[in-house]
Task: inverse folding
């Protein structure tokens, strides 16, 4: 049972992930853009953040960098969920400090296994 | 598509260029030649250029020869011509010494003229004026064999005597040729170089061609001076004819004659010495031109023949020239000492006065300036004109005689004329006769010089002469071109000209007799003369005749024949006239022949030049209309062509780059420009290493962001590097379109992934029974949706991958890869899928233990092998076998992926690496795939510098073999580091 923040501007995907995580017994917070996501991370200090890359107002890289720059927050694992699959893009995500880079479309198994792995560390 | 388009352009352009390029170089080379000429290549610095960078023999040959022709076409004299020829050759061929040896026919010597490189200038300056004799050294060999001689290394040819100066300048390469004009030796042209193997067969051919031009020019010059001589004689004849008006006043006649003759040879002093038979002595006949009458006092009494050497001159028809008259002892013996000194004469010419059969004295011509020397030509002009003088002088003496002295001479000479009937024209030795005689000769001379139509001129001359001497029939016979018989060329008079033998053997008949002996003859009664051949068909029997040889140049080329049906119809004066006319006819024929030789040559050169100009302008037109830019460089890397399109594309004016080294301006184009320059350097330094077709494709980025694609190619002739042709095109638009295409594919693929995420996710959730249990059918349908989503995902990934690879943005990070380890991964993959899909496939690897590491990008090589193994797995039925064979071949590692599946037909093998191509079997068997896998593999293999190919019989069960060849890590790579 963990508190997971899902940041995704695409409503259907947000709902999909939210449903899957609830189904697996997690508490789910959602956000639809980078700025509100950053506020939620600071306010709620979730156990895990799933970040979309391309979002309005502030992109996922920036949110990740801010989390990892903060003494208080940097322990929170971050996984990107992105449709951008080129090596350079994956590398940019990992450079921002993320622990995982999950390429869309992902299978439910993939997602659940990744979350389990991140929470256990 | 872009690349194919460009390739076609290159091929078209190259073909056109290879036709046109030589011409542009020729045009170019002419400018160079002129520039060098203006600098005066004779000085010590300029020829150094010629030595180090001899003009390329092939590209420039025709034009350089034309320049040589042009340089040789207006020589004022022989020395100017020799200098032009040496200069011309110095631009054509490499040399240390060029030697042009002119043959002097009278002495049999070769007079050398030399042109030297800085290396040999000191040596040549000390060489002196020694001459070669016939048969000596290489020169002798050339003359004897009438051909060229190429000695790449002088030591090789033991049977030929080397040049006499070889000891002083030890040259290694030698190239020489004989200069001949219609089989006559004119001289030799020889080159020597201190490096061995300087000259090749192309140089030899070039020298031979150039030597023909030079020999012809020398001949033309001789012809020109001959013509000048003819003009001099003609003017002289006219003047002498004018002098005939003074026969009544001997003193004025002599004054006029001496003045006329002096003007023809440019003498300061000229006088006639007459032989008086009574006293058997010579005396100066005043007035002399150029000296006061007081010089000709009684002391001007000359010793009598035969003691006087002058008698030898007028008896033997030889002339005598002295350039140091006052130092000659002969002057004393002649009795001319006091005259020569008084008149301050330095150079002296004495010729006989009168022709073969009427020698009446001598002509004395002198110059007061020691530098004004007389030539053989002057002597010939004087001797020729002097033949016109005796009748006038005799007539004048006769007139004087009528007034007082009755000389036996006068009686003798007039007797034959008096004995003739009235139909015979007056003899020349009467005053009126002399006038008419001179007038007739003038008319004949005018006739001869009026036209170059030989036959018309001969007919008219024959008619005039016949009328003058009262001949009934007249003929001109000329030696046939083959020289084996005489041909009738012109006839005059009664009867059928055909009645004469039209083709005579050279040894038969009167005409032949005159020709073969170069001697004229007068026959009073032909029936008594064995030389006259009587023909049955002769309409009217001819009784008397005159025959005279026609002399052209040095040889008799025919004869003139005049006949009459009366006995003794002709007098000796008429024989002399015929001989004079025949001499002029000979000159006219020779002139006409030479004119034709010259005009043929001029016509040939003219048409050559015209066709080259047409060709050049066509090629230029084609080049100018090509939208692609074209730059042509020569063997020295100088830009010699910069097309209008090139100016437009690169934004440079041709005037700024023409003549500059290409490296000056391609340096600014970054890495692409550097590789372009490197390629040009490599090609020029090592032309033999270039394959049959050498291409390079580079992209240059201009400062304004435009992208230029450039395709340089070498131009070779055999192994010789002539230059390069670079074709280029502004591909900014294509590059931009390409970029937009990649971006579009990337964006579309990305946009597809987002909805796919939802579809896939929710299907997964349904299949996890999160919203209630599913029945079997619902589950099967959802699995179909999931499988197709999976296919869509692979398609999108492959599309992104290939657009990424083709954009050229993908980079490889090379590592040293362990092939065994990679193959273990493949083995695991096959095992995993076998279990998962319950499809038993065996996997075998045969690889040598000691295998070098493979040089590649780990992920990409893994992708290559995985794709091939996956294909094999998909297309091999259960129970099949996948075998991997690994070989180390040269610097490559070859990996066979062999299956025993259904195989690939030959037709499909050709297309199997195309994008989106899927074999029939895969469609029939419903094997999923995008048709992009092998296309991606091919791209990746090529990025590694490897190759991939497929072999299959197309028979089910025999399977197929994919072989991929990738580079192994070399020791260089290891030394360079960076390899694991």
Result:
């Amino acid at each position: 049972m963990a508190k997971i923040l899902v940041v995704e501007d695409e409503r259907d995907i947000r709902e999909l992930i939210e449903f899957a995580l609830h189904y697996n017994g997690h508490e789910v917070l959602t956000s639809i853009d980078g700025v509100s996501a950053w506020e939620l991370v600071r306010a709620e200090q979730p156990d895990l953040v799933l970040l979309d890359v391309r979002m309005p107002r502030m992109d996922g890289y920036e949110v990740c960098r801010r989390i990892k720059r903060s003494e208080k927050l940097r322990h929170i694992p971050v996984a990107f969920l992105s449709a951008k699959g080129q090596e350079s893009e994956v590398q940019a995500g990992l450079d921002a400090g993320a622990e995982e880079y999950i390429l869309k479309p992902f299978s439910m198994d993939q997602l659940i296994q990744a979350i389990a792995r991140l929470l256990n560390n | 598509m872009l690349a194919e388009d460009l390739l076609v352009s290159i091929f078209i352009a190259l073909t056109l260029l290879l036709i046109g390029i030589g011409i542009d170089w020729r045009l170019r080379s002419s400018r160079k030649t002129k520039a060098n000429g203006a600098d005066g290549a004779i000085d010590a610095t300029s020829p150094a250029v010629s030595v180090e960078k001899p003009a390329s023999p092939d590209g420039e040959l025709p034009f350089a020869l034309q320049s040589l022709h042009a340089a040789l076409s207006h020589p004022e004299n022989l020395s100017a011509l020799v200098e032009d020829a040496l200069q011309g050759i110095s631009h054509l061929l490499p040399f240390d010494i060029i030697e042009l040896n002119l043959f002097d026919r009278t002495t049999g010597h070769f007079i050398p003229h030399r042109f030297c490189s800085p290396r040999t200038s000191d040596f040549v300056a000390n060489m002196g004026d020694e001459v070669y004799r016939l048969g000596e050294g290489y020169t002798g060999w050339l003359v004897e064999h009438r051909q060229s001689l190429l000695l790449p290394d002088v030591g090789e040819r033991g049977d030929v005597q080397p040049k006499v100066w070889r000891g002083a300048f030890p040259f290694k390469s030698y190239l020489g040729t004989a200069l001949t004009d219609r089989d006559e030796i004119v001289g030799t042209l020889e080159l020597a170089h201190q490096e061995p193997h300087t000259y090749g067969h192309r140089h030899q051919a070039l020298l031979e061609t150039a030597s023909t031009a030079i020999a012809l020019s020398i001949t033309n010059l001789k012809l020109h001076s001959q013509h000048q001589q003819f003009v001099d004689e003609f003017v002289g004849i006219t003047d002498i004819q004018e002098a005939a008006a003074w026969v009544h006043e001997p003193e004025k006649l002599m004054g006029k004659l001496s003045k006329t003759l002096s003007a023809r040879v440019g003498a300061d002093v000229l006088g006639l010495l007459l032989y008086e038979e009574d006293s058997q002595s010579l005396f100066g006949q005043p007035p002399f031109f150029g000296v006061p009458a007081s010089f000709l006092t009684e002391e001007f009494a000359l010793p009598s023949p035969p003691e006087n050497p002058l008698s030898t001159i007028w008896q033997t028809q030889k002339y005598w020239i002295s350039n140091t008259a006052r130092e000659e002892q002969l002057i004393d013996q002649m009795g001319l000492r006091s005259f020569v000194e008084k008149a301050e004469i330095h150079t002296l010419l004495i010729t006989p006065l009168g022709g073969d059969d009427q020698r009446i004295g001598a002509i004395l011509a002198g110059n007061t300036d020691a530098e004004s020397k007389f030539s053989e030509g002057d002597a010939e002009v004087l001797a020729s004109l002097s033949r016109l003088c005796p009748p006038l002088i005799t007539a004048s003496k006769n007139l004087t005689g009528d007034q007082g002295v009755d000389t036996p001479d006068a009686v003798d000479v007039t007797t034959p004329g008096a004995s003739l009937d009235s139909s015979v024209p007056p003899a020349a030795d009467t005053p009126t006769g002399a006038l008419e005689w001179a007038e007739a000769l003038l008319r004949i001379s005018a006739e001869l010089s009026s036209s170059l139509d030989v036959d018309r001129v001969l007919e008219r001359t024959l008619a005039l002469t016949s009328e003058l001497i009262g001949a009934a029939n007249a003929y001109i016979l000329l030696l046939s071109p083959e020289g084996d018989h005489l041909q009738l060329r012109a006839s005059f008079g009664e009867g059928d000209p055909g009645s004469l033998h039209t083709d005579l053997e050279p040894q038969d008949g009167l005409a032949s007799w005159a020709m073969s002996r170069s001697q004229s003859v007068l026959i009073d009664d032909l029936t008594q003369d064995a030389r006259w051949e009587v023909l049955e068909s002769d309409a009217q029997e001819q009784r008397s005749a005159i025959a005279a040889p026609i002399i052209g140049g040095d040889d008799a080329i025919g004869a003139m024949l005049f006949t009459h049906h009366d006995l003794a119809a002709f007098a000796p004066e008429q024989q002399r006239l015929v001989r004079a006319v025949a001499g002029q006819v000979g000159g006219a024929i020779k002139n006409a022949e030479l004119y034709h030789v010259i005009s043929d040559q001029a016509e040939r050169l003219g048409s050559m030049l015209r066709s080259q100009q047409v060709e050049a302008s066509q090629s230029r037109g084609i080049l100018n209309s090509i939208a692609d830019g074209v730059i042509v460089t020569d063997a020295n890397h100088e830009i010699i062509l910069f097309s209008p399109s090139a100016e437009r594309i690169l934004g440079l004016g041709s005037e700024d780059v023409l003549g500059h080294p290409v490296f000056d301006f391609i340096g600014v184009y970054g890495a692409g420009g550097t590789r372009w320059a490197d390629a040009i350097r490599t090609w020029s330094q090592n032309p033999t290493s270039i394959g049959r077709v050498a291409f390079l494709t580079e992209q240059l980025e201009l400062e304004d962001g435009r992208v230029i694609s450039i395709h340089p190619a070498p131009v070779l002739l055999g192994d010789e590097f002539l230059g390069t042709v670079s074709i280029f095109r502004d591909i900014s638009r294509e590059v931009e379109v390409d970029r937009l295409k990649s971006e579009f594919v990337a964006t579309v693929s990305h946009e597809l992934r987002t909805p796919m995420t939802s579809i896939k996710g929710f299907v997964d959730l349904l299949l996890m029974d999160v919203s209630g249990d599913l029945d079997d059918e619902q589950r099967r349908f959802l699995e179909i949706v999931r499988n197709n989503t999976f296919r869509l995902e692979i398609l999108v990934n492959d599309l992104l991958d290939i657009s990424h690879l083709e954009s050229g943005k993908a980079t490889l990070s090379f590592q040293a890869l362990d092939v065994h380890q990679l193959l273990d991964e493949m083995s695991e993959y096959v095992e995993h899928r076998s279990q998962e899909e319950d499809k038993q496939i065996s996997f075998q690897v045969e690889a040598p233990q000691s295998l070098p590491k493979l040089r590649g990008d780990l992920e990409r090589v893994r992708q290559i092998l995985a794709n091939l193994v996956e294909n094999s797995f998909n297309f091999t039925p259960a129970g099949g076998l996948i075998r991997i064979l690994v070989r180390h071949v040269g610097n490559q590692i070859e990996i066979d992926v062999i299956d025993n599946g259904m195989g690939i037909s030959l037709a499909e093998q050709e297309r199997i690496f195309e994008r989106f191509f899927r074999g029939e079997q895969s469609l029939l068997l419903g094997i999923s795939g995008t048709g992009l896998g092998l296309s991606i593999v091919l791209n990746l293999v090529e990025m590694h510098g490897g190759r991939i190919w497929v072999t299959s019989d197309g028979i089910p069960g025999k399977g197929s073999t994919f072989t991929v060849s990738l580079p192994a890590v070399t020791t260089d790579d290891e030394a360079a580091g960076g390899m694991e």
